[in-house]
Amino acid sequence: MSITTPEEVRLEILEFLHKMSREDITGWGVDRDMLQRKLGIPEKDMDANILYLAQRNLVQLVQAQNVLWLWARITPFGSEVIQNKKAYEQQFPFLKAGRGK
Description:
This protein is α+β, with helices and mostly antiparallel strands. It has 5 helices and 3 strands; from the N terminus they run αβααββαα.
């Protein structure tokens, strides 16, 4: 599936981080290179959308000097949102992005 809209990108990021957290519960998450390879979109688009998710407490970022972020992982709230999409669709409309495709 080709992701094109910010809503699709946000949902893809959150679902991927959720999946990775389930596979490695002791890990710190995903590094930016891995996420960019997964998404296949320009870095600036990835950064804008990961920051959107972080500002809403769905994702936690490890940041460093001269780098916007190095690692990302889903928060417990983000996992709750992914596991109960229907309950959070009004608060996070991007959860509807995967429908009808």
